[in-house]
Structures are given as structure tokens and as C-alpha cells.
Amino acid sequence: MSEHTEHPTTATGQDAHDGEHHTNYFKIYVTLLVLLVISILGPEIGILWVTLVTAFGIAFVKAYLVIQNFMHLRPEKVIVKWMLASSLLLMGIYFFGVAPDVMKHEGRNWVNMAAMAVVERGIPLDGEHAEEDEHADDGESPGEGEEAAVVAETPFNAAQAYGTVCASCHGAAGGGDGPAGASTTPPPADFTSADFWAATNDERMFQVIKNGGASQGLSPMMAGWGVLYDDDDIRQIIEHLKTFRP
Amino acid sequence: MEKPLATLRSATGVPTGRLAVWWLLASEVVIFGGLLGAYLMFRLGHPEWANAAAVTNTWIGATNTFVLLTSSFTAVLAHQAAEKGDGVKAANYLFMTIGGALLFLIIKSFEWYYEISHGYTITANGFWSFYYTAAGIHAAHVIAGAIIMGFIAVAARKGKELQRVELVGIYWHFVDVVWIFLFPLLYIAK
Lengths: 246, 190
Fold this sequence. Notes:
By secondary structure, chain A is mostly helical. Chain A is about 60% helix and about 0% strand. Chain B has a single domain (about 15-190), classed as Four Helix Bundle (Hemerythrin (Met), subunit A), CATH 1.20.120.
């Protein structure tokens, strides 16, 4: 058996790295099972940090135990650790390079309306979905059914929409002083200014919100929100803006 | 039969076969890491996905975690037996590990059947896209591992190529580690 000449130190061609013949695998296995039980029970308590620690913290502990004791990485040659570390480093670069653009839906000079629309539309909970099951069996796309259910059950809330979508530029109190609007030229409209209200009317505001500032010769930095809100929603938003009027 | 030089040589001090498995896993880290990283950033950017994640059955996920942890345990026992030169025992433990792989796949099949038949398909929304892609690629690794273990177990029973028992074990534990992270990401975080 030529493979046995490969590494003559043991019968199976292992080199001396397998010095840990005394690892108690059963003990490791039982520890893993105990950790599994904790990771299931922890989130049942319903406290966020307990969930994070028990579900994700314990996942790292379990992975560590498997890697060190079952895969025997600990006594492995250092080149192997560098190989794996390089892969993890590349992963980290990828994640932190891309994550800000994906996780945030608006930045200083950009807005991801499609993502915002998806968040706004939401996903119905299981119970709501169950009501749609009959339709799903009829071959209707479950996505459409879900959407209809949400529209019917969640009334539009203009103040909430303002907070989600408008406030980042126009400010939580409508003063045109939101953080994302700080660097735009011209600055975002100030709804607390009498000059603003003197220069506009409902129809003009409706067009700006629906089709964007450029449609009325205003700043193109003001995006059109017609994709996200229907006409009734926009009229409610305008009524909400009037609460900022001086 | 004489073996190729690359099989016998070990410039790094790590047996060539084992080094190859580590290289494979280093590339797998990027495959699964990229997928899970992408899932994580979307999940954090889309709070509404919590409602989709609420549908996944924690107990099925937990059962499959138990099955995979147990199969990792039998895989390491196979390695231990192979180290002592006991090919028959190593093969038996490998067959138990394959049994674990099959049980995992059977449970997964029932789970997916239930979900798909209730309209939670890969096209339902972003969460389910990631759910089926991540668990699907993982399941493909389970299938591949089971097949490879079958070949190695048959050889090991005859006392041949016992070093391969450790090699497939390292791969199998990696598949287990991937699931250890998939479990909280897809099942526990509601």
C-alpha cells in the first residue's frame, strides 16, 4: 500500500498533527447538543439581546467546537489557517464594501425607491397568508393575494409615510433640515416657512410628490414617489404637510 | 500500482490530499460566506422579512441540526477508527453518517413540500429566494458528501485508502458548520 509510505508516522497516513487522540469526542458531541437546546430556548424568551447571544453567539461557539475538535484545525499546519483566514478576509471586504448600499435605502444623494416600496408594502404574517391559501390553490400567484390582503387591512398613515420617506431630507418637523438634505443644492423645501406656502398650491405639491421636483421646474433631487403611493395617499401626505404650516 | 508524485509529495508538511480538502473548503467559505453575507445585509435592510421568516418551522430546523451534529459525531468516530487501522469499523461509522445525510434530506424534502404547496415558493419574495438558494446549495453539498462517503466506505471496508476517511470527514464537518449558521439565520431569527 503505497499510501502508507506517504506519512509513515501512522497507519492511515496522518502526520503527527493527530496528537489529540485523547479528544473526548462524545463529550464534545454532548456539549454541542446542549448548546443546540439553549439556542432554541433562548429566543423563546423574546428579549432581543438574549436572542442574538443564544442564536448567533452560540452558532459561533458550536462552529468553533466542530472546527477545532472534529476538523482538527487547531494542530493543523499554519499554512492551512492562513488559507482559511484569507477567504474570511475576502468575505469581510465583500460584506463591508457592499452592505452599506444594500442595507440603507437612502444616502446623501440617492434614494432606493424600489427597496423602500418593498419595505412599505410589507409581507403579511402567516395567519393572513392562510386566508389566501384557497386562492393560491386556484393557481393565483400568492404574491398578488398577499398584496391585496395588506392593502385591505393596513390603512395608509400619512404621518408614518412622512417619517419613513420624507423626513430624512425635509426634517422630522418639516423644517427642511433633515440630515440627508444637508448637502443638496438647492436645499429641501421648508414646510414651516410662510414663503413656501405662498409660492405653491395643492396641485403643484401633488405633481412634485408624484412625479418629482424636475416635473415642476424644481430640484431633481426631489424624487417622484408615484411608484410608492397612489393619488389618495399623496393627497393625505399633502394634508399632513399642512400641519407644518406656520 | 505506483501513485502520482503529487500524491506522495508533501512540500507543506500537510498531506497533499488533506491540503486539497482545505483548499476546497477555503473556496467554499467564499461561496457560502458570500451567500450568507448577502442574505444578512438584505435581512437587515428589510425588516418586513421577519414575517416571512416567521413561517419557517424552528422544530424542523432544530431536528435537522441535531441530525447533522450527530452525523458529524459518527464521521469523527470513523476517522478515529481509521487512524487505528480498523477499516471495517470506519466503514460502519461512515455508513451511519450517510444514514444521517439521508435522514436530513428526507426531512428537508417534507419541509419543502409543505412550504411550496402552501405558496411559499422561491419566487414569493426575497426571503424565500435566499431560503431556497442557501438551503438548496447546502443540500447539494449533503448529497455530494453522501455519495463520496459511499465510495470511501466501500474501499475502507477492504482496508484501502484509509486516509480518505479523515478527508471526507473534514468536508462533512464543514457542511455541518454551514448548517450551524443557516439554522439561526433562517429559522430562529423571526
